[in-house]
Amino acid sequence: MDERLARRPDAIRRMFGEIAPRYDLLNHLLSLRRDVGWRRRLVATLSSAPKGAVLDLATGTGDVALGVRDRAVVGGDFCLDMLALAARKARRKQRTVAWTGADALALPFADGSFAAVTIAFGVRNFSGLAAGFREIRRVLAPTGVLAILELHRPRGRAAAGAIAVWNRLFVTPLGHLISHDGDAYAYLPASVDTFPDRLEMAGVLEREGFAVIESRDLSRGIAALTVARRED
Fold first, then answer.
1. 58: left (phi over 0), alpha (psi -120 to 50) or beta
2. Alpha helices of 94-156 — where are they, by DSSP H?
3. pLDDT of the residue at 2
4. Segment holding 149, helix H or strand E
5. pLDDT digit string, tens, across residues 30-69
6. What is the CA radius of gyration of the chain?
7. Nearest to residue 184, comparing CAs of 39, 61, 11, 29?
8. Is 115:139 a contact under the CB 8 Å cutoff?
9. Is beta strand 140-150 parallel, antiparallel or unpaired with respect to 98-101?
10. Domains in the chain with CATH codes
């Protein structure tokens, strides 16, 4: 697990390739389906973005991209196994999304290509957080919006204790039982523990040329929603 906690891209890509077939099932089980509502909250933040296309980065199996309406959408991920599942889901739903291989630290898009970028549970896996935010800022149009849904360390002791128990009794055991890579669900809580909390992440965004316009806990701090606008 050390290479995963070091955020080595090859290790993270292999991990997601292994867990892709059970990714949606485990997300719903381990969050008690709260992840569905969290993603809807993320999509709703697009009302604050200027008109234009949306990039859903670290799109995974595409739930956020498929939830965006009335905008052109690109779903980007560096794990092709995840993108294959996203494309299959889009065909079932008869939705059109441009799926593309995309590494967050070297995006294959021109400067200013998007009015908004959304990321659900992806920034925690960046090999370089500040570098990833700089690259996202590059592909955002002026006043473009970056909306992030992520798991962070809760700041409250009670919430932190409850999540630690949930991880130990449910997340890691169920991950081992159901996924093709049980160690991935030991990595999940460890990656949260070694990632900045939402206020620290907001500080990184501000240093990289964003103005944070929303930063709030969801479900008593289990997840957090952060919305920032590109400054020029």
1. left
2. 129-139
3. 64
4. strand 140-150
5. 888 999 999 999 999 999 999 999 999 999 999 999 999 9
6. 16
7. 11
8. no
9. unpaired
10. 2-230 (3.40.50.150)
